[in-house]
Write a structure and sequence with these properties.
Layout lengths: L2 E5 L3 H10 L6 E5 L2 H7 L7 E7 L6 H10 L4 E7 L8 H9 L4 E4 L4 H13 L5
Parallel strand pairs: 1-2, 1-3, 3-4, 4-5
Helix pairs in contact: 1-5
């Protein structure tokens, strides 16, 4: 059983996760922001973080850096709705690689892809 934290999930992502997670016995928490996530859960106890990144809402690479800093041992899945062309493509992928974010899924995401990604992320060894 894993401790999974979902951050900044919109209605579509919540619905997708509810479809992907049945049958898996995990403890799942939801948080509206990274700041509230820090307050509600101990970062060292979180096994997997699924965080929605929305570039059009003034989120930038520093938000991804803060996510990795806050949850240094957790496996990270970032779902991205890239509305800012400046963040799409190579720049965004470079930031994802540098921060060692395990998976990045660009929206729209299919249920099967989310299920496979969660299972793959949880199969990885915990970060040191």
């Amino acid at each position: 059983m894993a401790n999974i934290l979902i951050i900044n999930a919109d209605a579509n992502l919540k619905r997708l996760l509810k479809l992907a997670l049945p049958g898996m016995e995990h403890f799942v928490q939801y948080s509206a922001t990274l700041q509230t996530a820090c307050a509600q859960s101990a970062p060292s106890k979180v096994d997997l973080v699924v965080s929605r990144f929305v570039a059009g809402d003034d989120q930038g690479p520093e938000d991804l850096m803060e996510l990795r800093r806050t949850f240094p041992t957790a496996r990270l899945i970032v779902t991205a709705a890239l509305h800012d062309p400046a963040l799409e493509g190579e720049k965004f992928q470079r930031v994802v690689r540098e921060l060692q974010i395990e998976y990045c899924l660009l929206e729209p995401i299919e249920t099967g892809a989310m299920l496979h990604t969660i299972q793959s992320a949880l199969a990885l060894p915990k970060r040191p």
